[in-house]
Amino acid sequence: MSDNADHNYIIHHVRELGVKLIRLWFADVAGRLKEVAITSEQLETVLEEGLGIDGGVMGGPTQDESELILLPDASTFALLPPVDGVSEVGRMFCDVRLPSGEPAPDDTRAVLKAALARAGARGYTFYAGCEIEHFYFRDGSSPLVPMDRGRRYDARDAVELVPLKRETLLALEQLGVAVDSFHHEDAPGQYKVGLQYNDALSMADGLVTYRQVARQVAQRFGVIASFMPKPLTEHEGSGLHFSLSLTRGEENVFYGASDPHGLSDLARGFLAGLLAHAPAITLVTNPTVNSYKRLAPGFSAPVACTWAPSGRGDLVRIPALQAGHGPRSTRLEYRVADPSCNPYLALTALLEAGLDGADLELAPPAPRDAELAPERAGASLPRSLAEAISRSRESELLTRALGDALHDELLTAAQQQWDDYHTHVSAWEIANYLEG
Amino acid sequence: MDTCVVITAEPPSESAVVRAMREAGWRVVLRYPGRGTDEIAADQPDVVVVDVPGHASVRTSVDRLIAAPGMEEIPIIAVVDQTAVREAGGIRRLVDFVLRPLRPGELAARARRPLAAGVRDDEDRIQIGGLIIDLKGFEVSKDGTVLDLTYQEFQLLKFLASSSGQAFSRDQLLARVWGYDYYGGSRTVDIHVRRIRAKLDQPYANCLQTIRHVGYKWVSRDALTDGAE
Asked: pTM here?
């Protein structure tokens, strides 16, 4: 077997399947999917040498570079869904390198890989499952018109959504993203999709893929799939819940038989680390101005650093063990993040925060008493992007996890976003002050 | 009589490997690790067993063996510690490994496999009904249509199908198919098995069997008896 057996396989496979185009996918610092398409004739060269792209597209510390190199990860090759019955386009995720060959500091996929490699060197594999919420709106509607008026688990779909949902699920299956469940959520036009748990890198790739596929399929139906955290003032916003676990070999090391909540000492330390670092990493898990309109009291999103076994308004919940899977399904559900985040960075921050708590043997506080409102039971999460920036600025954990340059860039970009927003005169202000 | 070259620093009287292979009727030749293996072709081995302590020295020995003239086609098996399974799986050109302490008969049985089962060049396709796994041509087709398998899916299917009837744990599969620098764990194997089954579809999906509390194995004949007919 040659070193490049995977390259040879893909080159052969692309020829056999009659693939004409390959989309090279990569994510910028904000987690937005970017792509360059190449023809299958170029594939062999690009696999070996990479493909040069303009610097400055990543939105991070490399914006002054004149060129960056995309190096495809052949193991992520998958066929994109057929158009008019013809499948001739594939995709691959890419590493982004500096011309020197070093990983680009703003390649967030590489940042997650590095964090996983550090955990791997200690014998840990980091798994994540997720539930992602989003809205379907009618395209071009102003004010926004949700696609249906359903509520949680309603079965009365808007007729147009039936083929749309079917096509989305089939496309994901083809791309190797396994969907556990798909159901209506609280707000009109809002759905929740469960993605089957997987190693954290595949999960982050899967989330980027999900957002892309959901948007593209919806577009063909004249519908907008929106991952905005809080599009409707009076309704629940959209969250992104991560179910986290660590394994060593085939053993889930979060399970502890003697603990009343079934958690090992490692898991309790991990939980404490998540609670302790949550305010500082919120900038990463909830990176937009709009994110903080979801994290407001009065809705089910968490507002404080609390946990509870069955807590819906808490930062961390301990889901029940799954029938038939027992201790292997022990996990911590982190409920703060929202679908506007960069999943590579979010999972990096969560892993590092949890491991830090485990290493320091932090003890989690007692679970929140159900009688007590979350905002009175724990330290509060940032209430605005401005607060998130200041909570994140001093975080040594983030500097260590992301690298100095990338951490700085996230802070600068967020500050710019906040300044833009803050100086913009909104409709609310006109309504309240114009004739006041 | 088939010839087995054992790479070891132990004296022959103390080597469990030498004993096991001799008992199984092999002609055994000893070579000292390092420079001693450069002219290994002169021994005309049918199989080489590397029995050196520590996975780093296993890797060094294997690298040296591969570089030796005449070794291109000769299967190499390593004896490794339980703790080094993942590292061993990442070593190229190892067709198999066995764990210390040796279990009676296992090494000899595994040494026989590469000669018989056809992971070597003389057999490069596996056919079950309309399913053809082309081991050298990198493709799997079903009733004439090429299946869209990812590289890792193909590697896993190829590995299991070329050891038909033998069960492997998830950790073994991870080590041998993915190598040690992979970000996933045993769950990764389950996910790939599920996808391969979906792509093979019935009756061939039946060939890839789950062995409770163990892992997975490939059984060719079941598809034809339980399946389409």
From this structure: 0.79
